[in-house]
Write a structure and sequence with these properties.
The complex is a heterodimer of chains A (134) and B (292). With 134 residues, chain A is an alpha+beta fold. In chain A, 29% of the residues lie in helices and 46% in strands. Chain A has two domains: 3-82, Sandwich (ATP Synthase, domain 1), CATH 2.60.15.10; 88-131, Up-down Bundle (Single alpha-helices involved in coiled-coils or other helix-helix interfaces), CATH 1.20.5. A five-stranded mixed beta sheet of chain B has the order 3-2-1-4-5. Chain B is elongated and about 125 Å long. Classes of the chains: A alpha+beta (134), B alpha/beta (292).
Chain lengths: 134, 292
């Protein structure tokens, strides 16, 4: 019994697929969902979502949202979901360097949180872009 | 009496106006289609969000104070968000909202009201009036995105949490159909009870983290979505209104051209008749001269 995966963003339905497994970047760490998972409601953090269907892996960059698992259906409500071909790798690379430089310097707490978020976003994009369309 | 040339000139002028109104109608129709598609694409997200909200509300209710965005305050300070288009030529689309806003504003005392104006028409109208404009947003309609809604929503949320306002209301045109847009007022903050959940069948979820934390994450997104929906409705409504207005203008131009054409024909006929009479009269005079 496979899993149904639905990824909805305010702009569009980013994916509806039958999948074998989903790995979700939860706000408190990555977790995998296989068929038969117990009902779950979790917040999604910044990171790469991966789903496997017929031995092929697909990746999407996530930047916050929610995940609901219920009777072999996974629904992701994401603010944004970016496919590898939608990501500008050079730009993400520059953003990473900028954020890294900022994190290395001294700063207040708000700036730190902001720089950290920028850093995580850049990393998520690069991760998805480098793994390719898969 | 207008000369033939005058009438012809007027016909040509009305024809070129008609060309413009017809083109505007076609453009509005194309844009309307895209705006409607956008509303449809946002629906799965909005529906699921409402369902989750209902579930979380029932899961987290009970102990502890409700989330600040849900908590009403007995205060008079009201922020009114007036959403219009940047451009006119859309019938009563903008003036309906501006008029509704005036009624609403006048129902509270001036010191308690602050405004946020979205769209050039609302800004231009209220800029010259005595109320405080906290923020405006113009010139973005052609590239409306969720980010615009997020920016606005986060501004409202911040003010509400900072205890600067006690209520935030949206005022916008709701898209009913191509021909019908209805001005509506929607309370954005505090989040009204009615929106706090289509009571979903209570599913026994594992919450990760706890339901209250998830709810705290969800509520701002709910507010953003409400703002986004209002913006999308208004945009679709604007194109619908413009389409209808331009359709009517094109028809009026058609009628005007018909009337002018009849006038032209009559004038031409009269001219020919007069010329004929002149010729006949002249010939008659010549004949009588020859007979004499």
């Amino acid at each position: 019994m496979p899993l149904m995966l639905e990824i909805a963003t305010p702009a569009k339905l980013a994916a509806t697929e039958t999948v074998d497994e989903v790995v979700i970047p939860g706000a408190e760490g990555y977790f995998g969902v296989l068929p038969g998972h117990a009902p779950l409601l979790a917040t999604v953090g910044i990171g790469a979502l991966t789903y496997r269907t017929g031995g092929r892996e697909h990746h999407l960059a996530m930047f916050g949202g929610f995940a609901e698992v219920r009777s072999d259906k996974v629904i992701i409500l994401a603010d944004i979901a970016e496919r590898p071909d939608e990501i500008d790798r050079a730009r993400a690379e520059r953003a990473r360097e900028r954020a890294e430089a900022r994190l290395a310097g001294r700063m207040g707490e708000i700036d730190y949180t902001r720089a950290l978020a920028a850093f995580l976003r850049a990393i998520a994009r690069l991760m998805v872009a480098n793994r390719g369309t898969g | 009496m207008a000369t033939l040339r005058d009438i012809q000139r007027r016909i040509r002028s009305v024809q070129s106006t008609q060309k413009i109104t017809r083109a505007m109608k076609l453009v509005a129709a194309a844009k309307l289609r895209r705006a409607q598609e956008r509303i449809v694409s946002a629906r799965p997200y909005a529906t699921k969000m409402a369902e989750l909200l209902g579930n979380l509300m029932s899961a987290s209710s009970g102990d502890g104070a409700p989330h600040p965005l849900l908590q009403g305050r007995e205060g008079p300070r009201r922020q009114i968000v007036i959403i219009t288009a940047d451009k006119g030529l859309a019938g009563a689309f903008n003036s309906n909202i501006i008029r509704r806003a005036l009624e609403l504003i006048r129902s509270s005392s001036a010191a308690d009201v602050t405004l946020v104006v979205v769209g050039r028409k609302a800004r231009d109208f209220y800029r010259r009036r005595p109320w405080t404009i906290k923020r405006d947003m113009i010139g973005f309609w052609d590239r409306l995105a969720y980010d615009h809604a997020r920016e606005l929503a986060d501004f409202f949320i911040q003010q509400y949490l900072d205890n600067e306002v006690d209520e935030v209301d949206l005022l916008y045109n709701e898209f009913r159909s191509v021909a019908v847009q209805r001005p509506v007022r929607q309370q954005l903050l505090p989040i009204p009870k009615a929106e706090q959940g289509t009571e979903a069948a209570a599913v026994d979820y594992i919450y990760e983290p706890g339901p209250d934390v998830i709810l705290g994450d969800l509520l701002p997104r709910h507010v953003r979505m409400q703002v986004y929906r209002a913006l999308m409705e208004s945009l679709a409504g604007e194109y619908g209104a413009r389409m209808t207005a331009m359709e009517a203008a094109t028809k009026n131009a058609e009628e005007m051209i018909d009337v002018l054409t009849i006038q032209y024909n009559k004038a031409r006929q009269e001219k020919i008749t007069k010329e004929l009479l002149d010729i006949v009269g002249g010939a008659e005079a010549l004949r009588q001269g020859a007979e004499a």
